[in-house]
Design brief:
Helix content is 36%, strand content 13%. By secondary structure, the protein is an alpha/beta fold. It has a single domain, classed as SGNH hydrolase (Rossmann fold, 3-Layer(aba) Sandwich), CATH 3.40.50.1110. It has a five-stranded parallel β-sheet, with helices on both faces. Strands 5-6 form a two-stranded antiparallel ribbon. The radius of gyration is 19 Å and the shape is globular. The C terminus is likely disordered.
Length: 264
């Protein structure tokens, strides 16, 4: 008999995936880091919901998160993570690149030096696969001084904008959107977006923690929702495997200009 036995299921046809490369603000975390979280862990649900609103397709979108704490555009490659990204990605997939937090700590990875060179190489290698690179500016840190939210990433966000223009790469302007998220909440209420706990309230952080870079669960979900909002229209526009750009555009629901805010 050619039928399935109990417990067997047919593998679903491979649908396009989202592959993430980046630093700790994107990365998956072990359970004992709770409530610290990267936004990548929450992108699948948020993006599936956004796509369902746009085109009625509620089939889950799978996200492969290969970001890592402390990663730079250089270390991500030397530690083998970039090879994993290229292995995980297939034609038509989207590969999101969000670096900068750690690159800025190294002189040779300055915005217009190694950082730009490494991202340029990444863009080319993703395109060689037939996948789609998507650049992200670094998410904002919650560093206030005199009641004003500081800009802490130097020229790195500007370098990402320049790369997007030079190589015609879709852009998610997360720096601007996360700054708006923080400032809209305000200096004190925005603490809830980050991993901040008083001493004695968590077995994982017995001495407490006041982190203004790494998100809490709530903060990571909020950022994932922003990413999903900006990314969902791109999924309609960029061709999947076997499609042409013209075909993808023809099959996409008509989007409003506001839906494209924050992306190239």
């Amino acid at each position: 008999m050619g039928g399935l036995s109990m417990g067997q299921v047919l593998p679903a046809a491979r649908r396009r995936r989202i592959v993430l490369a980046g630093d700790s603000t994107v990365a998956p975390y072990v359970a004992t880091a709770y409530p610290m979280s990267g936004w990548g862990a929450h992108l699948g649900a948020a993006l599936t919901a956004r796509c369902a609103l746009l085109d009625g397709d509620a089939i889950p979108l799978h996200v492969i998160d290969l970001a890592k704490n402390g990663a730079t555009t250089e270390s991500h490659r030397t530690e083998g993570l970039w090879a994993a990204v290229l292995d995980a990605a297939a034609p038509g997939d989207l590969v999101l690149l969000q670096f900068g937090h750690n690159d800025q700590k190294h002189e040779h990875l300055a915005a217009w030096d190694g950082y730009t060179e490494n991202l340029t190489r990444m863009i080319a290698e993703v395109r060689e696969l037939g996948a789609h690179p998507v650049l992200c500016t670094p998410v904002a840190r919650r560093h206030y001084e005199g009641g004003k939210l500081l800009r802490t990433h130097g020229e790195h966000p500007t370098a990402v904008l320049a790369l997007s223009e030079t190589f015609d790469v879709p852009l998610l302007e997360l720096q601007t959107r996360t700054r708006a998220l923080i400032t809209t909440l305000g200096e004190e209420p925005s603490r809830q977006l980050f991993t901040q706990l008083p001493a004695g309230t968590s077995e994982f952080y017995p001495e407490g923690i006041e982190d203004n870079t790494h998100f809490s669960i709530d903060g990571a979900i909020a950022v994932a929702e922003i990413v999903a909002e900006l990314l969902a229209p791109l999924l309609q526009q960029l061709p999947a495997a076997g499609e042409t750009a013209t075909g993808a555009a023809a099959g996409a629901a008509a989007g409003s200009p506001s839906a494209m805010a924050g992306q190239k």
